[in-house]
């Protein structure tokens, strides 16, 4: 028995717009949430989600339904986010030396835009500190951590999404957690 | 327990991947090691805070923003009735392969034409004086001594005597009597590919010398 998504994907491939719209509805917010946690920038997160669906549409015929649709779409979106984080790093590492803000690197210096919902504006100090710590996570840990906490994916699924063995995922979860612990240690 | 091992176990514990025995071991260590107890507390707090921060129930976009994004996505996707991936579009998207395919096709057909054309008996060699040709049969009689190579195309070759070189038979048969003696290589070429290879290597070596 095929999954709902696989059937929708098949219909969309035949040119059924409503089927594709349904896929968008099913995954748009999840992807946005993930992208937003990765990038902490509304505009960029929206761009990533849009680009992800474009790629999904273009590659529908290449979708292999032995793979979970969610794994596939998360893989596409995660890769887009990682690319963006890497590009940022390339730009910001140029003047990383000159930055004398303690504990802040290029990631933290990206202005997060302020068009966030109320709930995000009303961050407590503690939340702000955690927020900042998460933002400074290197891309390879960040993707793992975001997928782990946000979607409550199993380590195996994260491995499938990122195309790496479970042992690597575990190591990255551990390192990411240690990274955050060190960042938060003195502040909390 | 070593503290490094304890830290690894702590992470496995936070990943919910620790057996009951291992948990007991970890607890035993933590009860006796202040540094590790602090470490675990920090990690647990980190875990909890990160979890809250990333909780998917914390909305990051409003309903209007969400529907605006949906509209944006649906607008940007170039919906069209997908044509079945036709031959023409395939050719257009793979120009190099198409050109190569046409080239191979032309080469192959001309080669096939050449292959079928030569059905007449052809004999070549440096010393044909002692060779007897009758009908489609080329005979090297007993006691004859042919110097140099002998090539027979589209015919039968019967060798009774000596050949001081290679004997090559293309699209034909070769008979070697017990008295025959061929000092060089004996080659029989039947397959189109072999023939092609022979022609190519022959023309290259004739260019070289």
Automatic annotation (TrEMBL), chain A:
GO molecular function: DNA binding; sigma factor activity
Record's keyword terms, sorted: DNA-binding, Sigma factor, Transcription, Transcription regulation
Top-level taxon of origin: Bacteria
Signal peptide: none
Pfam families: Sigma70_r2, Sigma70_r4_2
BP terms from Gene Ontology: DNA-templated transcription initiation; response to stress
Domain annotation RNA polymerase sigma factor 70 region 4 type: ranges: 128-180
Gene3D superfamilies associated with the record: 1.10.1740.10, Winged helix-like DNA-binding domain superfamily/Winged helix DNA-binding domain (1.10.10.10)
RNA polymerase sigma-70 region domain mapped to chain residues: 23-89
Family: Belongs to the sigma-70 factor family. ECF subfamily.
Protein name: RNA polymerase sigma factor
Taxon lineage: Bacteria, Bacillati, Bacillota, Bacilli, Bacillales
UniProtKB/TrEMBL annotation, chain B:
Alphabetical keyword list: Membrane, Transmembrane, Transmembrane helix
Domain spans labelled Putative zinc-finger: 3-37
Parts of the chain that traverse the membrane: 90-115
Similarity section: Belongs to the zinc-associated anti-sigma factor (ZAS) superfamily. Anti-sigma-W factor family.
Highest taxon in the source lineage: Bacteria
Keyword Cytoplasm carried by entry: no
Protein name per its UniProtKB record: Anti-sigma-W factor RsiW
KW rRNA processing (keyword) present: no
């Amino acid at each position: 028995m095929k999954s709902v998504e696989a059937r929708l994907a098949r219909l969309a491939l035949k040119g059924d717009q409503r089927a594709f719209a349904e896929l968008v509805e099913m995954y748009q917010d999840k992807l946005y949430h993930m992208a937003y946690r990765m990038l902490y920038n509304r505009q960029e997160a929206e761009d990533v989600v849009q680009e992800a669906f474009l790629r999904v549409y273009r590659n529908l015929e290449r979708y292999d339904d032995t793979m979970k649709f969610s794994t596939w779409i998360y893989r596409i979106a995660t890769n887009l986010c990682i690319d963006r984080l890497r590009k940022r790093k390339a730009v910001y590492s140029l003047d990383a030396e000159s930055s004398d803000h303690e504990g802040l690197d290029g990631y933290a210096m990206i202005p997060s835009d302020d068009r966030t919902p109320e709930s995000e504006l009303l961050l407590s100090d503690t939340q702000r500190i955690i927020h900042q710590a998460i933002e400074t996570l290197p891309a390879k840990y960040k993707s793992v951590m975001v997928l782990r906490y946000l979607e409550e994916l199993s380590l195996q699924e994260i491995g499938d999404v990122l195309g790496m063995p479970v042992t690597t995922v575990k190591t990255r979860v551990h390192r990411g957690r240690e990274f955050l612990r060190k960042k938060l240690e003195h502040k909390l | 327990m070593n503290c490094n091992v304890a830290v690894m176990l702590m992470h496995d514990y936070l990943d919910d991947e620790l057996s009951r025995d291992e948990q007991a071991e970890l607890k035993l260590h933590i009860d006796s090691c202040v540094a590790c107890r602090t470490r675990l507390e920090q990690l647990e707090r980190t875990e909890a805070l990160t979890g809250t921060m990333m909780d998917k129930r914390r909305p990051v976009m409003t309903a209007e923003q969400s529907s605006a994004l949906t509209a944006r996505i649906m607008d940007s996707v170039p919906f069209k009735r997908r044509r079945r991936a036709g031959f023409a579009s395939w050719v257009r998207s793979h120009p190099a392969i198409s050109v190569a395919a046409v080239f191979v096709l032309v080469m192959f057909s001309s080669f096939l034409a050449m292959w079928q054309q030569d059905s007449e008996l052809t004999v070549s060699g440096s010393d044909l004086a002692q060779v007897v040709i009758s009908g489609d049969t080329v005979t090297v009689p007993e006691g004859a001594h042919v110097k140099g190579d002998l090539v027979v195309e589209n015919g039968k070759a019967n060798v009774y005597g000596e050949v001081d070189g290679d004997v090559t038979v293309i699209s034909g048969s070769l008979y070697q009597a017990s008295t025959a003696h061929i000092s060089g290589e004996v080659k029989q070429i039947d397959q189109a590919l072999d023939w092609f290879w022979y022609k190519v290597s022959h023309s290259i070596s004739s260019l070289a010398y």
